[in-house]
Amino acid sequence: MPLLEPDPEALRPDAHPEAPASDRVPEDRAGGTPEPLRGDLIALLGADKVLTGISDLVRYASDASPYRFLPRVVVVPEDIDDVSAVLSYAHGKGREVVFRAAGTSLNGQAQGEDILVDVRRHWTGVEILDGGARARIAPGTTIARANASLARHGRVLGPDPASAIACTVGGVVANNASGMTAGTHRNSYRTLASLTFVLPSGTVVDTAEPDADEQLAHAEPDLCAGLLRIKAEIESDVALTARVRAKYAIKNTNGYRLDAFLDGSTPVEILRGLMVGSEGTFGFISEVVLDTLPLERRVTAGLFFFGSLTAAAAAVPLFTAAGASAVELMDGNTLRASVSVEGVPGDWADLPGPTTALLVEFRAADEAARETYEEKARAVLEGLTLVSPVASVTNSLTRDQRTVGGYWKARKAFVTAVGGARPSGTTLITEDFAVPPERLAEACEALLDLQTRHGFDAAVAGHAAHGNLHFLLAFDASRENDVERYAAFMDAFCRLTVERFDGSLKAEHATGRNIAPFLELEWGPVATELMWRTKRLIDPDGVLAPRVVLDRDPRAHLRGLKTIPRIEAIADPCIECGFCEPTCPSRDLTTTPRQRIVLRREMMRQPDGSPVGDNLLDAYGYAAVDTCAGDATCKLACPVGIDTGALMKDFRHARHSAREERVAALAARNFRALEASARLAVAAADRVGDRWVSAVTRMARRAVRPDLVPEWLPRMPGAAPAPLPDTARVGAVAVYYPACVNRIFASPGDVSLAQAVVAVSERAGRPVWIPDDVSGTCCATIWHSKGYDAGNAVMANRIVEAAWGWTAGGRLPLVVDASSCTLGIAREVVPYLTPDNRELHAGLTVVDSLVWAAEELLPHLTVHRTVASAVLHPTCSMRHLGDEAQLRAVAEACAEEVVVPDDAGCCAFAGDRGMLHRELTESATREEAAFVTSRTFDAHLSANRMCEVGMDHTTGRGYYSALLELERATRDPAAHEGGAGSRRRGASATDDNAADRRIQPHVPPHDPDDRS
406 phi and psi, to 5 degrees? Predict the structure, then answer.
């Protein structure tokens, strides 16, 4: 055992509830997957595809719904053969199988109690067909990722759920999810061209094959005959046929798509329709081909306020007739609750009770079409009575993309505000239903009254153009009386929706466990029995997802409701939606932010001394704490703003001994000597060679502690030159702060990054000054990322005090040449500052060097040479700072073609974490690296030295700062050749004698499509 192995007891929760939770994992499950199930599946698939530990089972036990079911085993198949093998095994052993992709489903569809199959990890990819008219998409691909590929072709998918950043194409098709604009015409059912799926029997069907029906008839003759019998039965019943057609005149995802029997003429065509919205109960969708729609980039929108729900609802069909692509409704309670969300006007808190707002958006392919829409919208507005009860209300149309983005943020603030502010210990349920659009106002008022009568917060929002409303419920599943209150509400709500409005109990979230008991209430006994017959026909042994769509137990929706134990305050508001997961660097290696929180909550459910709790704790150190990159991109995706990385840093701090904290603080106080020693060590390692240094560091890691001693990796850069460029304070327009990482590690080529920044600033007539005493200072991120609070405080206060002096009391901007350091000085140091230094910090202007170059230098520089192509790695710090556009602007000045990989994300190198756990960076960058190495680029550019080292390691390509390329591009041709990065480019660059061109920087505006 390593000498300094951390004590897992440091992570044990301080307190437990007075009584263990009723839904805690029982002690007999502490060992994980039982035999023979464990051995059977490992023998069948291989150990790397079977997750059996209790930590793995618990982290997969929750999704975005209020339900929680612990699987017996989790399987991670790589291909259809693996899936078929699992289905065959389940048939032979009488077991059940549930497929799970993103786990963003809101009704428990992604949970199972036996074999759970993860079909996200190995099931991603997009193939553009027919110039973008269609797309072939793997089921684990997120909607946002698919749309990123399609956007280059001016196309977009029809379904546009609010969870697009996380939900997968397979899940969207399986649930027939739609969204803000899809309605009943752009959803999966209407835009599906073909799909490939595996039936419960293991038969694979590709509906695009010309002889698909012949193949199916040969493999499944009874199934084909049965489908045609049900089709004939429905078509012979005139009343039933009319009822089916009427049910799908409005949005409806409750039950199976019986109209598939009317729309399909052959068994394969019927199955193609039935698979949509089947929620994994008919088979596994392995591939989808969807028809796409034009991406209309010209956007005009407005947020209009009305004095009542009735007045707002009356305006909805007018805007729809005028061509609005989206009409979203927010009632007064929603608007007032939303003020807790950053960016929402504070005066909304003073809106009168009945105030209602409509967010109306128009999209057009060209300017003429947009002007036509705007003219029609103004005509509608002239006939409306709008109100302006508070100063922030403008009731006007706008083309400004930032303003439009703000409107959408306000629309989605509903979940953020209510979810984040709900009482601790309560679970959040997101419900949706649909009514005929002409009865929208009546349905809103009835719902609000029902919520009030049952003691729930009354608020409603939704897709008004389609009569689709959403509401939230928060209750404590650990309290029997709260569960019964929820049960009474659901019974009353379902009867209200069906009996008064003839509506859909699920408009776009699919049936799931909480509506399955009410299916017959909506559809009646005849149609419901046809659904049961269809399920028995396709899945006669009941292998796939039992009780997810069909359940005869009238209280089935109350089974498996999850308690929400109180955990650390920073993570306690988590609603377990899963939006954080696609952005998490460790998602395919260990755990995601949601899973880290789910595991923590299970620890809290367990009593002291529980073997389940002990086993979870043993696994948590590596799976949750050590392999968290701490990049905080989860916070950007989280609807309630949780930074799980900050919690993991707190846990790192908790594991430190008092001695370790003292040593870290001593290192901060003596950082000048430590910096010089590090530079000497890097220089020595460069002379000795990678192989020998790597061997030594691996031995030290085994002897001391893997999370304490970094591993020397191949391709590590050499030492930076100790002296920094000479600069003058007199005449400088900014203070330039070379980050310590750039003072220790060298840049590639003959020009250092510091020399490049000084040179391009001088050429642009914006000279910078490097203080003489920067050595020994740091942005404090070294200590912050590792949870060394004392050392963090020492360095945070030192850098702010120094910067205050360097910048003449904040009169000059401080330009920082590493994006993570910019973020550290600008934001992350603040909580560790003394009150006096917080005042100093408030007077500083901290600017990233890429922003400095894009905004201050580019307009005054002339390009003399460019490279043909450049690929960018935007860092996660740039995402936090909003600087990605500036990186692209600098790159576009230097390269004829600039590419940002669709799968670009946090590299997880995180200072030295990629050296502590190289597997983390390798996993985090796998898809991005695959793209980068699939073709040749002349330049590989980024904005942080350690991120560049991480990308070097995983791609084998040489990454360097975009500012080095800018220096080379703007260097006078008569000057000495061979500077930064020259060893990589050579003949691949464009002709250095090409005509000079003045740089016209292009900073893309905010994209209103980015509603994540």
Answer: -65, -35
